[in-house]
Amino acid sequence: MKYLYSLLLIVICYQAQAQHTAASVQFWEKLSAHCGKAYEGKLVSPESDPRFQGRLVMHVRSCEDGRIRIPFFVGDDRSRTWVLTMGEDQLIQLKHDHRHSDGTQDEVTQYGGKASNSGSATIQFFPADQFTAELLPAAVGNIWWISVDENSFTYNLRRLGSETLFSVKFDLTKPVDAPEAPWGWKD
């Protein structure tokens, strides 16, 4: 009976582990299905911000093994790329690649965080990592999250302990023409 109980416990743990990793993989696959497509978005919060005036477009431009790169364009500004990486632990990391128009890296780049759990098939959370805390001390309380479903992709930032909330939502039901390459992009 002890043997059967131990075996049952192993099976339950294995199933829990499989379910644990499946959510992040499902999210990854849902996002990867949009590779090569671009979508227009709108600022949700705040409702207006002078730094984000102009047409907002995301382009799921590159889906490589373990890495998805999504340039985010604000009008003619092609400086931002969201970089998602799937680790061997099947947890996803989000980094922000910021470039100048000549392609060189901005001083403030490669900040972000890694999911602390598998999230769900439609949402992943990324608390600020140590690199971010050292690069941008005010961002130590940042939590980014991305949600994706059949209709929309939403990128969000909340800075804990402050009023900072940023959210931009893209309509996945209406692809748009793919924009130019982001600054510094090499295919």
From TrEMBL:
Q: Which domain of life is it from?
A: Bacteria
Keywords (alphabetical) are: Signal
- Decide whether keyword Signal is in the record: yes
Write the signal peptide boundaries. Answer: 1-18
Question: What is this protein's record name?
Answer: Secreted protein
Q: Which organism is it from?
A: Algoriphagus lacus
